């Protein structure tokens, strides 16, 4: 589904060239939830952004659904990006658009054969009563739900999540993890999650790649924890986490 | 004292038709300037933004040409710009002096350059995350501009327009030198040259009131559209 082969990327830094991604080869299977973990600055985001061509590798290949992304022209890139949804750490909503308008936005940019309806996704993420609100009126968790709805409305083949819960508190993190899991179940996408939060990986992913200073150290099978903590109360979670420790 | 007030009121009434006429002339110049700012200044400012480093139409040459144009027009002493443009206006419009339409040409030029700079600045203030999102959705440049940049920058575009508008009023007051008329010309002609200071101050008061109203309307509209 997604094959990254010998990808490298350097940025010009203060002390000369800096290798953000250094010769990474990995393969992500269709319909899996794949994690990319590592410390801040390890190159996780850069590696993920190869997939939807927000960054282009200096060397190596990125092959998505049989297409070598490096060979695409401008138009081809747009078509490629059209079917990949993305959610962000800081949500990146348009503050001057309502929840509903934000979610509708991708559908105004391209023609989609089989999109979801805006009402459907709003219901899916549980924001029926916030349709007319502006992002400034929402909590962090609600903003990320809008971000997820906006990504899902096009029925993407791949969903990229860059630190989707890193701006959220623990409680809300579990909620968002629940929404992402439900989304993957229902819409049958390949999901790639970048995060430094091991808990999120543990709850969601089948496999995870570990990056360190741009290098792929290991790819592991995750011992998937099945408890869906999004249904627990805060008190139950406190008990579980603190008593375990 | 009441007598002085009565005399003043009589004089104001006497001058009112001429005042109204000069306001009309100012209005013509302002309308031309505003239309030029929107139809040409907005696209030029957008071009300056898009052609700058790291943006979707990055192009050094294009940026430099637009940038130099804006800098020259903005740093040109306005009175001299008016004079220098005379032959050009005569060529395009048939006459260069004596009416507010001819006087509108330099007004339009300064309006374009001034507003383009405001627009460029407003667009640079749009958060990086918004651009990143647009890119991840595979937008075309026109979609980026209309569906993202202008949406998120709209209140700052309006505040910039308000500030530009206030400058246009100021620029319009010197168009009397080429017979363009207007409220500034009125103040100079009757007040300054004929020592009718009370009339001059009245005209200045009218200008100030206009500026304050424009300012207030612009900021109110911007605040209403700002949902950030
Ligand atoms: N556009 C860029 N220009 C310069 N340096 C960058 C750019 N993007 C990322 N970097 C650098 O590359 C390294 C890896 O970045 P990133 O992929 O964002 O790491 P992570 O997501 O793991 O925190 C960091 O040191 C970062 O400063
Ligand atoms: Mg990152």
TrEMBL record, chain A:
Residues in ABC transporter domain copies: 2-238
Keyword Cell membrane tagged: yes
Protein name in UniProt: D-methionine transport system ATP-binding protein
GO molecular function: ATP binding; ATP hydrolysis activity
Organism: Salinicoccus halodurans
Gene3D superfamilies for the chain: P-loop containing nucleotide triphosphate hydrolases
PANTHER family reported in the protein's UniProt record: AMINO ACID IMPORT ATP-BINDING PROTEIN, METHIONINE IMPORT ATP-BINDING PROTEIN METN
GO BP annotation list: amino acid transport
Coiled-coil region: none
Keywords from the UniProt entry: Amino-acid transport, ATP-binding, Cell membrane, Membrane, Nucleotide-binding, Translocase, Transport
Cross-referenced Pfam families: ABC_tran
InterPro entries in alphabetical order: AAA+_ATPase, ABC_transporter-like_ATP-bd, ABC_transporter-like_CS, MetN_ABC_transporter-like, P-loop_NTPase
UniProtKB/TrEMBL annotation, chain B:
Compartmental location: Cell membrane
Broad class of where this protein is predominantly found: membrane
The organism of origin for this protein: Salinicoccus halodurans
Record CDD domains: TM_PBP2
A cellular component term, taken from the record's GO annotations: plasma membrane
Keywords, ordered alphabetically: ATP-binding, Cell membrane, Ion transport, Membrane, Nickel, Nickel transport, Nucleotide-binding, Transmembrane, Transmembrane helix, Transport
Domain ABC transmembrane type-1, first and last residues per copy: 23-218
Homology family: Belongs to the binding-protein-dependent transport system permease family.
Coiled-coil blocks: none
Pfam families for this protein: BPD_transp_1
Name the UniProt record assigns to this protein: D-methionine transport system permease protein
Keyword Transit peptide found: no
GO biological process: D-methionine transmembrane transport; nickel cation transport
Membrane topology of this protein: Multi-pass membrane protein
PROSITE patterns: ABC_TM1
SUPFAM superfamilies: MetI-like (SSF161098)
Single GO MF descriptor: ATP binding
Transmembrane segments: 27-50, 62-89, 101-119, 157-179, 199-219
């Amino acid at each position: 589904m997604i094959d990254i082969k010998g990808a490298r990327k350097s940025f010009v830094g203060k002390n000369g060239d800096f290798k953000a991604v250094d010769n990474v080869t990995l393969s992500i299977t269709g319909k899996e939830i794949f994690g990319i973990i590592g410390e801040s600055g390890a190159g996780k985001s850069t590696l993920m952004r190869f997939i939807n061509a927000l960054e282009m590798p200096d060397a190596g290949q990125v092959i998505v659904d049989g297409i070598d992304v490096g060979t695409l022209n401008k138009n081809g890139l747009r078509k490629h990006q059209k079917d990949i949804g993305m959610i962000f750490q800081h949500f990146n909503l348009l503050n001057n658009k309502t929840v509903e308008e934000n979610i509708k936005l991708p559908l105004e940019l391209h023609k989609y054969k089989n999109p979801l309806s805006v009402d459907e996704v709003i219901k899916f993420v549980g924001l029926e009563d916030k349709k007319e609100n502006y992002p400034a009126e929402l909590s962090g968790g609600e903003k990320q739900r809008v971000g997820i709805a906006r990504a899902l409305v096009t029925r993407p083949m791949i969903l990229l999540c860059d630190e989707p819960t890193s701006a959220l508190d623990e409680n809300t993190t579990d909620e968002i993890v629940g929404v992402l899991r439900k989304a993957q179940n229902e819409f049958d996408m390949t999901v790639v999650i970048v995060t430094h939060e091991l808990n999120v990986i543990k709850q969601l992913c089948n496999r995870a790649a570990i990056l360190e200073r741009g290098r792929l150290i290991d790819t592991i099978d995750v011992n998937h924890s099945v408890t869906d903590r999004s249904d627990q109360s805060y008190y139950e979670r406190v008990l579980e986490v603190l008593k375990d420790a | 004292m009441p007598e002085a007030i009565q005399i003043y009121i009589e004089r104001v009434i006497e001058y009112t038709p001429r005042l109204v006429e000069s306001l009309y002339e100012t209005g013509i110049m302002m309308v031309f300037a505003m239309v030029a700012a929107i139809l040409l200044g907005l696209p030029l400012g957008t071009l300056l933004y898009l052609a700058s480093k790291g943006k979707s139409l990055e192009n050094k040459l294009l940026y430099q040409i637009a940038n130099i144009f804006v800098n020259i027009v903005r740093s040109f002493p306005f009175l001299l710009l008016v004079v220098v443009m005379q032959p050009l206006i005569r060529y395009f419009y048939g006459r260069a002096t004596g009416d507010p339409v001819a006087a509108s040409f330099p007004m339009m030029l300064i309006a374009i350059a001034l507003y383009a700079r405001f627009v460029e600045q407003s667009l640079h203030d749009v958060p990086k995350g918004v651009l990143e999102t647009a890119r991840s959705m595979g937008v075309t440049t026109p979609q980026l501009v209309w569906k993202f940049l202008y949406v998120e920058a709209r209140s700052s575009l309006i505040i910039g327009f308000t500030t530009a508008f206030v400058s246009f009023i100021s620029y319009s007051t010197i168009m009397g030198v080429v017979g363009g008329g207007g409220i500034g010309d009125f103040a100079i002609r009757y007040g300054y040259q004929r020592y009718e200071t009370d009339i001059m101050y009245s005209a200045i008061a009218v200008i100030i009131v206009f500026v304050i109203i424009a300012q207030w309307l612009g900021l109110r509209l911007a605040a209403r559209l700002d949902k950030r």
